[in-house]
Amino acid sequence: MASKKTAQKTLRLAPVLDLNEATALHEKLLALKGNAVAIDASAVERIGALCVQVLIAGARNWEEQQLSFTFAKVSDAFVKTTQLIGVDIDPLMAKEI
Amino acid sequence: MDMNEIKEIFFQECEEQLAELESGLLKLNDGDRDPETVNAVFRAVHSIKGGAGAFGLDDLVSFAHVFETTLDCVRSNRLEPNQDVLKVMLKSADVLADLTNAARDGGSVDQARSRQLIKELEALANGELPRASAAEPAPKAEASVPAAVVSPPVNEEGFQPVAFSFEDFEADEPALIEGTCYEIVFRPKSELYAKGNDATLLLRDLSRLGEMSIHCDKDGLPPLDGMNPEEAYFSWKISLKTDKGEEAIRSVFEFAEWDCDLDIALAGGCAVDAGEELPMQPVPFDLSMLDEAPAGSADGEEQIATRDRDAAVSAAETASNVLQMAQSSNRAPAEAQRNAAAAAAAQQAASAATPTIRVDLDRVDRLINLVGELVINQAMLSQSVIENDTNGTSSINMGLEELQQLTREIQDSVMAIRAQPVKPVFQRMSRIVREIADMTGKSVRLVTEGENTEVDKTVIDKLAEPLTHMIRNAVDHGLETPEKRLAAGKSAEGTVRLTAKHRSGRIVIELADDGAGINREKVRQKAIDNDLIAADANLSDEEIDNLIFHAGFSTADKISDISGRGVGMDVVKRSIQALGGRINISSKPGQGSVFTMSLPLTLAVLDGMVVTVANQTLVVPLTAIVETLQPEASAIHSFGATQRLISIRNSFCPLVDVGRILNFRATQANPVEGVALLVESEGGGQRALMVDAIQGQRQVVIKSLEANYTHVPGIAAATILGDGRVALILDVDAIVAASRGQSLKPEMSLAAAG
């Protein structure tokens, strides 16, 4: 698998993912292209729909590249918000546990 | 509006909610079982939590949440609100108030206390619940771990999950909702985000209306390279089952309606669980969802939009350039987002009460000051018209009379703006009673009456401290321990009664306890020990009672944290007097004591007697004057070198020559030519103030002498009379003190003038 050949990079998300953070998050994701990515969302306190959009777009992109894109750690707020807005991140949850 | 103003509004709202909360809890404590009362209490805590969440005040949110959870048990009749339960709840309300204050002013709160209360609250929610939680719909009961969401310490205490769904308080029993189903299509535009709002917030509010299923339409999402991170791509199809109606749904989107496409339609059948063709996801607020894959998961991710890559890359470049420029201006929208949330919360809370506006106190004061000037000006005008008017029947006179009435009415209305009910102060007292009762191990009940009695805001602000002192004293010294009370044939629970009422243009506040009363023997002995009175002094009961107002007096055997350091009642008396008030005490052994305070309704105007002393016009506060009399030569007796006494109804009273004391004249005036004003001074003694003549009685606007000139010993303040001259308002206590041989020293009259 492709994901095993490349080194896995971890992207730690900021606590507040609002409008201001969406562009930064987008850039960070673009910079990680070509690597397997584990998203650490454990510090997230607040996440807006814009950042969810970026993350989902990222997930699709990675899937297209057949690289692994997982949420290694998630905070309660993160899970709650994504569930609230009907975005299912479960398939992207790290499964190795 | 900047962030701080909004926050300030939030805290003001909080204060109101806390008052609501406390009065609701006290009603419950008195046996009120009206569901509306419980709901009101619940709403108060919930609003605080909601607002605090918007400002990211985590401590407040987590405590409010646990509190709310327990209240929810009461609301759904799973927990009987008995005395023990309410005791914990009242304490929790206090801690909530502390946390709010700490959030506003900084500072810290007693962590141990709030942790302890969180534990107690959970025990309550938990203790009576095993049956109830089992009865709840199984998935919910298993899933909800409310406290864990916000308050980790809770879990460490082994808190069992109770049936309570986080945030979703309106719909805690979904099966029972008799609602209609709406199909909502919500397509936010980019402007919505640009203005700082967020779809997640709107959806969260929406989810509170009822049972909601949601489908997020991600088809519009471009590939990562080609996307603009600040563009809105997602849209939502929501099916909501609610009993609130379309109006409520629309109001959720109130602040966003121009920035999104919104379709709300009545659904044919309730499709909440039906799934239909949309891969709907129910919206649970639970956490156990983490462990197991939910049914009916959206598989939108698989539909990947494929576009021309080259175009996408160039678009991304352009986008990121634009965005970099835009980023600097991003702070404002972030604030606007919080603004919107706070405004929504404020609106929700405000809709319940009668419409009010918040006005800066400075503005009101400025208005009051101007109206005061208007009154003075009007008086000057009418006086000059009268002086220049020879025939006395001109139409100007009639017009002036009307003007006078109008100005007086304007003045009264403006004064009414500053008038506030004493309720907030009284409510603070109930907390103090609880805390001291706890410390002393006594069981105390505070009964308040006349909380809606209105009085000037300055008076209210300055009332809190002396009242606190007195309440502490009443509970600590006045009331006996439960054992002693039972032995005396009283109920174990002591009662402290706090009442406020209007009495002839003043506010009278009474603090009564049903304790042991003042131990006169002990007070007398203590006064002798402290050299306050001679060992053989013959004092009436009343005089002995009044000894406790002496500085450095305390009968408590041991000094406690609460009271007994001897800086109590004298401070109380001084602060009451500084407000232009009087304090009296009456006590019956074995039945308790009553403290009565009489205070002016306002500090901005004063009823005074205008008098002449050595061609100077002075104003004597009417409250100080007991009676006026024309001295006869036979009633005047010389005493010592310079002192004179006047005999009034067979008792002697020192005669005080005001003109001499204020250095208006060098020699003593002849008492027979003047008028004597019998005044009551500090300590209850009477003095006869000698003035030359009485001009009349008038309401005068008080002008601070300190602010405009400098402090003058013996003078409390000044006013402007109708003829435009400045008249000085006499500081009666300072004059009386000076007549005792002490010279007028600036610091002596500070309290009275302050």
Describe it for me?
- The complex is a heterodimer of chains A (97) and B (754).
- Chain A has a single domain, classed as 2-Layer Sandwich (Transcription Regulator spoIIAA).
- The N terminus of chain A is likely disordered.
- Chain A has four helices and five strands; from the N terminus they run αββαββαβα.
- Chain A is of the alpha/beta class and 97 residues long.
- By secondary structure, chain B is of the alpha+beta class.
- Chain B has five domains: 164 residues, Up-down Bundle (Four Helix Bundle (Hemerythrin (Met), subunit A)), CATH 1.20.120; 154 residues, no CATH class; 60 residues; 179 residues, Histidine kinase-like ATPase, C-terminal domain (Heat Shock Protein 90, 2-Layer Sandwich), CATH 3.30.565; 149 residues, Beta Barrel (OB fold (Dihydrolipoamide Acetyltransferase, E2P)), CATH 2.40.50.
- In chain B, the strands form five sheets. A six-stranded mixed beta sheet of chain B has the order 15-19-20-18-17-16.
- The longest helix of chain B is centred in the middle third of the chain and has 28 residues.
- Chain B is flat and about 105 Å long.
- Classes of the chains: A alpha/beta (97), B alpha+beta (754).
CATH A-level architecture of chain A: 2-Layer Sandwich
What structural class is derived from the secondary structure elements of chain B? alpha+beta
Kindly report the CATH topology of the largest domain in chain B.
Answer: Heat Shock Protein 90
When the domains of chain B are counted, the total is 5
Average pLDDT level of chain A: 80
- CATH top-level class of chain A: Alpha Beta
Total strand count of chain B, please?
Answer: 23
Largest sheet of chain B: 6 strands, mixed
CA-based gyration radius of chain B: 35 Å
Order of helices and strands of chain A: HEEHEEHEH
Q: What's the tally of helices of chain B?
A: 26
Unreliable sequence segments of chain B? 128-177, 270-281, 284-316, 318-335, 344-351, 561-566, 745-754
Distance between the termini of chain A: 19 Å
Contiguous helical run count of chain A: 4
By oligomeric state, this entry counts as heterodimer
Helix share bin of chain A: 40-55%
